[in-house]
């Protein structure tokens, strides 16, 4: 990856391809990233829901932890069961702080090392939190080796109902993966096979793959995928509306250091073995707060909820929410028009008393009270392939 002298934004290995495809580039987490291509966000969103979309997510951080103690060491930073993860099985995880707040969310998968010399934990962390996350992981360096593949690795996501079957025309064994599993594969290509590590996961609510590839091979792989008739390039704009419809949290918006996993509705991600009464209960930052809230949910003062607009007015992040009697209820954390849901949707944090099924709250938009109804998430059904 290179720096552009005038702007100091970091360029991904696919930067020239984005320009060639007519992308509108924007600064995002220190990178120049494509927000949309000429067909526009709406068309890109719908294409991903109907066929297969290719996303450049090379701004994300890729880290490996090596050594016999790596899983136990990582458990001192996250409330998840890492030691019980079998090779090739991916898990969603959270870095937490001493107050029980979320420092970042990440993906973890044990895999064989590329050189075949034993196993490692492969982590994917958010772009905006990458520097802080790496510093946090470096605190484990007396217990395991912290390896930073970046910037030598790029990351692509192929998402949509036709993503895996399309990719499997190139690499048949890709079809054997189920949701949240991964493996090394070789993609036949002109100029020699491309070695990748792919997981059947993603950030759209659709079936699909996230593909880690050497930066030197990223352009060849992207061109090969875009040559498939089902695949179109998709920018950050549609990525955001897709993940919002899927009810997935965006770090810095729907989860941050002020929200606990329980408030965020992410208790499902904390396995029983790390909870009170479990074999390895606690031992992570903020355990006292988080485990108390799991046992007594009334200790969590707020709840993350889904809202659907009762008129066509889009409601954006930061909009204040009031109850019918004018009491302050909470605030929107993410909001947009949702193309597949057919109207405005939002995620919000509200005081627990307002988190009532099918209740109505009023978003304050330019002096108007816009009615929104509480709705369970996701706003569109997840289509992950669980076998």
From TrEMBL:
- Which NCBIfam families does this UniProt record tie to the protein? gcvT (TIGR00528), PRK00389.1 (NF001567), PRK13579.1 (NF010093)
* InterPro entries tied to this protein: GcvT (IPR006223), GcvT/YgfZ/DmdA (IPR028896), GcvT/YgfZ_C (IPR029043), GcvT_C (IPR013977), GCVT_N (IPR006222), TrmE/GcvT-like (IPR027266)
> Ranges for the Aminomethyltransferase C-terminal domain?
302-380
Name listed for the protein in its UniProt record: aminomethyltransferase
In the record, the note on similarity to other proteins reads: Belongs to the GcvT family.
Q: Which GO terms describe its biological process?
A: glycine catabolic process; methylation
Q: Which PANTHER family match?
A: AMINOMETHYLTRANSFERASE, AMINOMETHYLTRANSFERASE, MITOCHONDRIAL
Query: Which class of enzymes does this protein belong to?
Result: transferase
Per the UniProt record, the source organism is Thiomonas arsenitoxydans (strain DSM 22701 / CIP 110005 / 3As)
């Amino acid at each position: 990856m290179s720096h552009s002298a005038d702007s100091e934004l970091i360029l991904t290995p696919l930067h020239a391809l984005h320009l060639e495809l007519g992308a509108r580039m924007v600064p995002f987490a220190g990178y120049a990233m494509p927000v949309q291509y000429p067909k526009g966000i709406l068309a890109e969103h719908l294409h991903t829901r109907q066929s297969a979309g290719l996303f450049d997510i090379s701004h994300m951080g890729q880290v490996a932890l090596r050594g016999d103690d790596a899983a136990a060491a990582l458990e001192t930073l996250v409330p998840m069961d890492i030691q019980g993860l079998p090779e090739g099985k991916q898990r969603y995880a959270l870095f937490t702080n001493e107050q029980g707040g979320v420092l970042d969310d990440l993906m973890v998968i044990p895999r064989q090392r590329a050189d075949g010399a034993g196993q490692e934990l492969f982590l994917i962390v958010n772009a905006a939190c990458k520097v802080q996350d790496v510093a946090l992981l470096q605190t484990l360096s007396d217990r395991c080796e912290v390896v930073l593949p970046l910037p030598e690795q790029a990351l692509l996501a192929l998402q949509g109902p036709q993503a895996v079957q399309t990719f499997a025309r190139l690499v048949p064994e890709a079809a054997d993966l189920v949701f949240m599993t991964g493996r090394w594969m070789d993609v036949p290509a002109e100029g020699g096979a491309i070695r990748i590590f792919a997981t059947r996961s993603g950030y759209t609510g659709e079936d699909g793959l996230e593909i880690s590839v050497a930066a030197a091979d990223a352009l060849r792989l992207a061109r090969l995928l875009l040559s498939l008739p089902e695949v179109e390039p998709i920018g950050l704009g549609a990525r955001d509306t897709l993940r919002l419809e899927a009810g997935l949290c965006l770090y810095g918006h729907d989860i941050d250091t002020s929200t606990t996993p329980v408030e965020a509705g992410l208790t499902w991600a904390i396995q029983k073995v790390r909870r009170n009464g479990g074999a390895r209960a606690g031992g992570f930052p903020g355990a006292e707060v988080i485990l108390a809230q799991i046992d007594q949910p009334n200790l969590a003062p707020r709840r993350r909820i889904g809202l659907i607009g009762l008129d066509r007015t889009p409601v954006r992040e930061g909009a204040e929410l009031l109850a019918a009697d004018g009491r302050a209820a909470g605030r929107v954390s993410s909001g947009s028009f949702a193309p597949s849901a057919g109207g405005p949707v939002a995620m919000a944090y509200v005081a627990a008393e307002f988190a009532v099924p099918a209740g109505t709250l009023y978003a304050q938009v330019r002096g108007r009270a816009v009615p929104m109804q509480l709705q369970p998430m996701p706003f569109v059904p997840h289509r992950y392939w669980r076998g």
